Amino acid sequence: MKSIYSYILILSVFFGCKKTDNPAPVDPTLPTTTTYTFSDLKVNGTFSGFTYYGLNNIPIVKITFSSPINLTSVSGNVTLTDVAGTSVAFTPTLENNDNTVVITPSVLQPITKYILTVNTGLLSKTGNKLQTSIAVNLITAVDDTDKFARITDDELLTLVQKQTFKYFWDFGHPTSGLARERNTSGNTVTSGGSGFGIMALVTGVSRNFISRADGLARIQKIVAFLKTAERFHGAYPHWLDGNTGKVIPFSTKDNGGDLVETSYLMAGLITARQYFNGADANETALRNDINNIYNGVEWSWYRKDNSSTLYWHWSPNYNWDMNLPVKGWNECLVTYVMAAASPTYSIPKSVYDTGWAQNGAMKNGNTYYGVQLPLGPASGGPLFLAHYSFMGINPTGLTDAYANYETQTKAHTLINYNYCKANPLGYYGYSENCWGLTASDIQNGYTASSPTNDVGTIAPTAALSSIAYTPTESMQALRYFYYKLGNKTWGEYGFYDAFSLKDQWFASSTLAIDQGPIVVMVENYRSKLIWNLFMSAPEVKAGMKNLGFSSPNL
């Protein structure tokens, strides 16, 4: 037994020594390393990740790997396509001991995204495959050449007004004469956008885009339609059927009166009434009809049981279920002005102070991007807040207990401009020439863009409708939108609604509420026409004074 035990011990020592001195053979079923890796990327000599903006039309892309590359395997394994998948030709070469593939594309189109893809099938000279595929996004720059012949700034402003005016003249609804909601809206017309459109029609007559007789005839058609259209305690709905005058629900419960949209419509009608001031029977009848429409709006009833604020909506089916009080600061100042100005259903100053101004709670006072903002949300909010009410209300020298409105509108616009210029989110394309955040279409949707809700989309109406506040900055933007981007931004009814250089997206839409302010606010900048007409209305003067406003224009 002892001898057997000794033999086993000797064997165990022997094999123990063998395992230590000589590694076991490799199992042929285990995988071996047969790949190589990506090492470096340079686009036009720089590395900034895998997305590159503002490239020239023949960028040089250099991709370096850990092993020399077989040039013949580039075909089919390195592709360059646009976002639609269309292939783009390129020339591949090798350098750096064949470890670097140099891609030189054919001429690329401006403001276009291309994807350079390297598949794992790209072989090294030893036949190994790439460990992981690579995708590089290449976005080309704006073509800096002028798209249209240069004209004077004054001629450009006239051109913009005339072209944008066509939205309301050529595209006005054939039966009602009202403005369609957008260029794809069919019979859906918008009450508020039509108020802007009426101001645009007055501008068109004054600018001789159309004759006074033609302008009068269109306003007569609109007023005749409004006399028979559906109203809810005197207020019109947000949307109407342009053929029948019946309400088209804006949402399920928003199928009745919309007081804010109605206020925009009334402001437009009062402006037209002041313009068509002739003694002849047609203009006299028009003024009487407008007075009857305006006097029929039951502003005070929209206080909801005599409460201390105005309410936005009322429905015959859902009553006050929308439950949206009209509180400042936002685009609705003119709603309170039109309510206070009403000879028939006026509201007292206490409703303005408590409901709208919230006894001063609408004040801001903070400084953003070097500019102090008197009223409203952080960083000012979308720029339409500075446009809709002030298409008729002249903010120049206008003050009340809460703000100087000339300061407010200019500060709001400059904050928006300074934000876009600073571009804290690093969106491609933003600059002192390319700015303006407001409510607009965006890629696959709609949003109220602002410095606190910035998705990289610029709306021309934002900067252009602010020209009375920031003439230098707005004119810079207008020149850029027209001369540099005009082949993509300019259309049948003026500028399309919005664009994103970041996403290489350009809207094909035009909206009444965005086109109207361009025509009107450019005119206010040039001649103060609409401001002077609206502010000349006796009811407006009395109503604004009753609310505590002071102005050289009252």
TrEMBL record:
Alphabetized UniProt keyword annotations: Signal
Keyword set includes NAD: no
Domain (Glycoamylase-like) ranges: 325-537
Pfam families, per database record: Big_5, Glycoamylase
InterPro entries xrefs: Cu-Rt/internalin_Ig-like, Glycoamylase-like_cons_dom, SbsA_Ig
Taxonomic superkingdom: Bacteria
UniProt key word Signal: yes
Protein name: DUF3131 domain-containing protein
Membrane-spanning segments: none
Annotated ranges, domain SbsA Ig-like: 61-132
Signal peptide: none
